[in-house]
Please model this.
Amino acid sequence: MTAPQATKTEPRKRSAPKIRENIPAPASPEGELFHYTPEEAALWLPFPARRLRLMAFAREVEHVNSGNKIWFSGLNVRAITEQFTVQPYTKPTRAAA
Model:
């Protein structure tokens, strides 16, 4: 008797996320209310799409949740940018004696 042949299953291939063409910039008037997918919003933010989804599920960032899908409006993208903006340190001035 021979041992059964090991079957090799191929991993499922994920299709690349679709990014629509000619999407407006979040700072533009058209982009303020435009809804971006996490992949599209990641083009404007320093986070990958997966991290944006996780942050949205954890309610750490502003987002639009419609029908259990995560979207980011242009205003949300701008708010996330402001949320993670670090202001420069200014040395406090000493009072004159």
